[in-house]
Structures are given as structure tokens and as C-alpha cells.
Amino acid sequence: MTENRSRQYTDNQYSRIPDHELGSGFSNYDRLMVELNNRQYYPKEVYEKFLNENGLDAYETFDKNTDHAKLLETVYSILQTLLSNIDMYRKIETEFVTSGEAATSLWNRLKDLRAEINRIKAEMHYADSDFTFMFYTR
């Protein structure tokens, strides 16, 4: 007998249906914007397409148990596109004096984000993946 050994977040806030009048809960798009610190690198429609590419509907309720890794993959994809257009990144992130500084900062953020994605996938034991982590360090 196989049992589902998937870890679940226990905080009830992640299973609450958003009430837009009360301002509770998150849609996937809202959660994406929080992860991006509300930075508008692209128009809203482009963010919606990135979410869709990673299997998320922009206006569905964010469920941390099932959507967290997909959302972080979306953030990773968006930030990765900015590596090839560092000037667009610098228009929003104005604290960098040179393009090299901006690229280094973005690259470090991508590495940290990839490590977080891998950690979440390993800890949550996503049942939809046949991939096994052979080497994993914290």
C-alpha cells in the first residue's frame, strides 16, 4: 500500500478563499506581485502569461500547498528574462550604478531562488513529480 507522504502547510490562511471586499487571501497574480516586490518589469498581461506557462491561473486562489513551487518557478522565469535585458531591470531597480552590479545582484537572486525552489520541492514531496533529488544540501 502506498501512502501519500506529501507534507502540507498547516496554517489555515493558505486554504482561505479570498474575499476581495474584505481584502483577505491572495490570487496567484497577487502573490506573484508580492514575490516581485510589486515591481512592474512587464505589463500585467505578460505576468498572466508567465503564470499560465507554469500551470497557474492568475485569478485562481493561491494555495501554498500546491502552488508555491510553481509560483516561485514563475518568478524565476521572469527574473531570468531580465538577465538578457539588464537595462530594463535597472530602470526599475535604480540602486545599481553599473550594469555589472545589477547583473551580479540579479544572478545571486536567481541562485537563491533556485535553491528555495529545490528545497520546497524536496520538503513537500510533490507527488506529481517522478524526479528524485539525489544530491541535496542546505
Task: Give structural notes.
It is a single chain. With 138 residues, the chain is mainly alpha-helical. Helix content is 51%, strand content 0%. The protein is built from 5 helices and no strands. The protein has helices spanning 28-35, 44-53, 64-83, 86-92, 99-124. The chain starts with 27 loop residues before the first helix and ends in a 14-residue tail after the last helix.
Based on the model shown, name its key terms.
5 helices, mainly alpha, single chain, 138 residues, 0% strand
Question: Low-confidence runs (pLDDT<50, min 5 residues)?
Answer: 1-5
Secondary structure: number of strands: 0
Q: Radius of gyration from the CA trace?
A: 17 Å
**What's the helix-strand series?**
HHHHH
Helix/strand class: mainly alpha
Overall pLDDT score: 82
Main β sheet profile: none
Span of the ends, CA to CA: 31 Å
Number of helices: 5
How much strand content do the residues show? under 5%
Helix content: 40-55%
Q: Overall 3D geometry?
A: globular
Which helices and strands appear, and what pairs or packs with what?
Elements: H1 28-35, H2 44-53, H3 64-83, H4 86-92, H5 99-124
Helix pairs in contact: 1-3, 2-3, 3-5
